[in-house]
Each structure stands twice: as C-alpha cells, then as structure tokens.
Amino acid sequence: MPSDRALVQQLRKQNMHYTLREFSAQGTSHTRQIQSIDQVLLGPDDREAILSGISDRHTRVISLTITEGGYEIGRSLEHILKGEAPQTVFHYLALGLDQRRRDGQRGLILMSCDNIQENGAVLKAALDPCLAAIDPALPGWVEESVYFPNSMVDRITPATRTADVDALEQETGHRDEALVVSEDYFQWVLEDQVRALLPPIANFGVTFVPDVRPYEQLKLSVLNAGHSLVGFLGEAMGYRSIHESLTDPLIAAAFDQYALQEAIPVLSPLNGVDYAAYYQRVKSRFANPMLQDSTARIMAGSSDKIPKFLLPILRAQLALPSPQIDMATLVVALWWQYLDGIAQRAAWEELMDTRRDALRVLFEDSSSSAERLINYEPIFGELSGSDRFVSRYYKLIQDLQSLGVPQVLDPYFLKH
C-alpha cells in the first residue's frame, strides 16, 4: 500500500532485517533479529516484480494477511474491466495466476491468515469474479490447481510506538525503526489438506487439523469480539489501553459476562479444548501491561470488525429460547456513542474506517442517527428486524446518554 512506503524503505535500509520483541505478561522480554526476508516490494512501485513473483515456477505458497475491510472487490473488477494496472491484491493474484496457467506451471497454495471465519473459502469467493473477468477459463484452472486452506493465526501485535523504539535503543544500543512488538503467545492452526505440500512447519508450532472452523469461531468470538468490548468500554471510561481497561472491575466483569454467558455457549465444541480456560488465557493476555495496546487501535475499522466478530454471536443467541445479548448489544450501542461523539465534534478525519463516508451520512442528523445506524443493511442485515435486539440497543443508548457507562454496568454486577 502507498502508506507502507516508509516501512519498505526502512527495511531495505536495514538489509531486510528487523527486530522482534516478545513480552510476557510478567514483564520479561525476548529480543531477536529476524533475517528471513530476502526482498520487500511495494505495490505502486514494483508491479512487474510482484507479478513475476506470483507466476514464478519456484513460488509454491503465497500467504496473505488482509484487514477485515479489504474484501471489497468492486475496485478490483473496475480496474480489470478497464484494463488498468493492478492496485489490489485480488487483481495481482488474478493476473499472476493467469500467467502461471499460460506458462503451463503447476498451481500453488494461497494461504489466508485473516481474521475471518473460513478465510480460505472467503479468499476464493472474493478472487473468483476477478479470475473470470481476466479469462472465463481461469476459474476452472484455479479450481483444479490452487489450494485455499482455512487457517487461524493468533498473536496480539500492537502498533509499534516511538517509545518502544527508544527503549530498544536504550537497552541494546541498536535503533530499529522497523521494530515489531508482540506478546509471547502464538498459535497457528492450519487445514491439513496442504500439509504434504508444505515444509515441515509443524516442527515450529503449526497445528494441522481436519477442520479449522471451530478454532476460528473460538478466537474471533472470544478474543476479537472481546477486544472490541474491552476497547469501547475502556475508551468510554477514560482508559487509553486495553490492559488499563481490564484493571477496572466493571469492564473485567463485562468481559466475563460476554465470554462466558454469551459467546462460549453458542460455539461448537472442540475436543480437548476447555473454552473457559481458553477465555481466562485470553483475559490474561489482554492484561499484559508490556504491550500497551491502545483502545484506538481496537476501535479502528469497527464497521468491518463488528459484523465478522460480534454479530455471529448475536445471531446465534437470538435463535435460542432465552437469548443472552446484553454485552454484545452494548458494543453496538457504544459504537453508536463513539460515532455520535465524532459527529458532534465534526471530527470525521479521526475515524479510521473503510466506511467512514457512509457513516458520516448516517450521522448527518443526530436525532435519527441511532435508527439509521441499526438499519444500515451492509452491517446489520436482517438483525434490524429483531425486536429483541433493536429494543435492547435503543434502551442501552438511552441509558448511556442519561446515566453513563458505570451506571449502565452497575445493575449487572454490583447488585449480584
């Protein structure tokens, strides 16, 4: 992306090496140099080199990490139909795969590492229209030659701060502007259909399973949706980081209620995995003070995160005789409150969201913004027709406006 130019230039300056600092919740850290990158290419500057890399007969795996909002393929199709140069990952892949086919090359593995349920299948579905726009025969070749395994990757990696770079220099004498900071926890689960085609990555911590979906659902519903809950509650109560937010007993209790009473009860069981223990591990990871993960990072892109992480839990609960939806609905109400605050300040440039322009239109009239948001079909779909959900949403907004977050949470926790 054009915004990555400074990072690309820095990595080239550092001979493609960078420092990784992994922090435990106990405050210990492990620092090492990563030297496995041979080349870094930037889309706007290196189109031909990227296309050559995709079509190269030695290329066997292309892994992808795309943000939740990166699956809008309208631009890709527009550029393809107009014969323009590629600007999106789907356009690049379609052109590169077409060249492989024309060259008589074998297929490869397209390995999605995205925070999306059934990410391999979603990647293929997003790519197919672009393939057909290049050549109607191309989707058939891809169907026979290319693998799209589902996967789940879990590691909290906050945006690196200048303070992190300064601390590294002070402690080691080495300044690295491409520093990556993360927790020491790592999990990667991959569909075993491609195991025989890969290097022996199981030796390095990758777990191969027949079906990744239960792992995806657990992580997205508890960790990612939980992140949104803690982030919005923390921001509303004056905290600026996730770990500080969880020091508040009300926020910690809200997270407990969401995970243990709303999310976990509607997830598919997974042999050998204690979901309650998994949640406690997630909660301890969120509380890691060394990460300094900001509430702002977690709230960014919520129009893409909420439908993928949170709304599946709402839908599953609403299908039950006695649905538990208080905390999931509270996230939506807090999102409205956050957007309303931006609208009141006319500060839309602060909002990091792919749907910023559409959201701005929804909030042009403050008297109807709550209604217009919940009826915004691209996000909420049929949920706007659920009387139970919608009435709870309006009641929570009313209570947030008149009472404030602590008082809204108080009836759930302090009186029980």
Structure description:
The protein has 416 residues and is mainly alpha-helical. The chain has 2 domains: 2-154 and 183-209, Rossmann fold; 213-413, N-(1-d-carboxylethyl)-l-norvaline Dehydrogenase, domain 2, CATH 1.10.1040. Helices cover 51% and strands 9% of the residues. The strands form 3 sheets. A 3-stranded mixed sheet has the order 2-1-6, with no helix packed on it. It is globular and about 65 Å long. The protein starts with a helix and ends with a helix.
Number of helices: 19
Kindly identify the CATH topology of the largest domain. N-(1-d-carboxylethyl)-l-norvaline Dehydrogenase, domain 2
Radius of gyration: 23 Å
Spatial shape:
globular
The proportion of residues forming helix, as a percent range, comes to: 40-55%
Label the CATH architecture of the largest domain: Orthogonal Bundle
Taken in chain order, the helices and strands follow as HEEHEHHEHHEHEEEHHHHHHHHHHHH
Instruction: Tell me the structural class.
Output: mainly alpha
CATH superfamily (homologous) name of the largest domain: N-(1-d-carboxylethyl)-l-norvaline Dehydrogenase, domain 2
Please report the first level of CATH classification, the CATH class of the largest domain.
Mainly Alpha
Strand residues, percent: 5-15%
Low-pLDDT segments, ≥5 res: none
Could you say how many structural domains there are in total?
A: 2
Rounded to the nearest angstrom, the distance between the terminal CA atoms is 50 Å
Largest sheet: 3 strands, mixed
Overall number of strands: 8
Which strand order do you get reading across the main beta sheet?
Answer: 2-1-6
Mean of residue pLDDT values? 94
